[in-house]
Design brief:
Elements: E1 7-11, H1 16-27, E2 31-36, H2 39-52, E3 57-61, H3 67-78, E4 83-88, H4 103-131, E5 134-139, H5 151-170, E6 176-181, E7 186-187, E8 211-212, H6 213-225, E9 230-231, H7 235-247
Parallel strand pairs: 1-2, 1-4, 2-3, 4-5, 5-6, 6-9, 7-8
Helix pairs in contact: 1-6, 3-4, 4-5
Length: about 250
């Protein structure tokens, strides 16, 4: 990253990994644009960061499953002359079987994870390419490598991995870096606090497999400096993925 950070735009910034990115980038001197649905939490985060760091933090209330809101954020992104980092973090999961769940929720997920990411990335890139610097982090998941997770969730996150790899190849030599961040089970996040996950028991997952959001983000930013495109933070997560690949036989269901 260059010596004089500009602005970072973070979607899904109200909690978890998004808020952790906001805190760590603020500490590095980035001005922030925090995007999400939970405006009160975004305002509290922005106020606290501005109190502790010599930065500005702007809050944009937006539902990124709504095309009108996405268009508004897209225009803002395209107009930012100092945008140095875009964090496409907004996302959610749906419990239960695909065949038994509301298809509308799956279409919303595709819109948030895929369409919004593509639109905001396309809006951010021209300015970054002209300035010959910038970074885009698309928050994916390590479930793309494992036989777990919901159908649409895994599929959309797998898209982010392929999108990021192909885009980084296209951007070689421009000074713009791309990363698909594939975290495992992340603590200090409200990802599983949604009503749909009321029955989810976190204790089913061994404590050793949970990684704090702050650690996920610190490892992501370090990997970005090393130009690692599809990045799984944590040795244990990478080991799980390696074991899953060894144990999964081609063509076996």
């Amino acid at each position: 990253m260059h010596n004089s950070p500009g602005t970072a735009l973070i979607t899904g910034a109200a909690g978890g990994i998004g808020a952790a990115f906001a805190r760590q980038l603020a500490s590095k001197g980035y001005n922030l644009i925090l995007v999400g649905k939970r405006v009160e939490r975004l305002v509290a985060l922005a106020t606290g960061l501005q109190d502790h760091h010599p930065i500005s933090a702007e809050v944009i209330g937006a539902d990124l499953s709504n095309p009108t809101d996405v268009e508004r954020v897209e225009k803002l992104t395209a107009g930012l002359e100092s945008l140095d980092m875009l964090i496409n973090n907004a996302g959610f999961r749906i419990p239960g079987k695909f065949s038994e769940s509301d298809v509308t929720k799956h279409l919303e997920m595709i819109h948030v994870h895929v369409i919004t990411t593509v639109r905001l990335t396309r809006a951010a890139l021209p300015g970054m390419i002209v300035r010959r610097r910038g970074a885009i982090i698309n928050v994916s998941s390590f479930v793309t490598f494992l036989p777990i997770g919901g159908v649409t969730y895994r599929a959309t996150k797998a898209y982010l991995n392929a999108f990021s790899e192909a885009l980084q190849a296209e951007l070689r030599g421009t000074g713009v870096r791309v990363q698909a961040l594939c975290p495992g089970f992340t603590s200090n996040t409200d990802f599983y606090d949604m009503p749909e996950y009321e029955a989810f028991d976190r204790s089913q997952i061994p404590k050793a497999l949970w990684m704090p959001a702050e650690e996920v983000v610190a490892k992501s930013l370090k990997a970005l400096r090393r130009s690692q495109v599809v990045y799984i933070p944590g040795f244990k997560n990478r080991l799980l993925v390696a074991l899953a690949r060894m144990l999964t036989l081609p063509g076996r269901v």
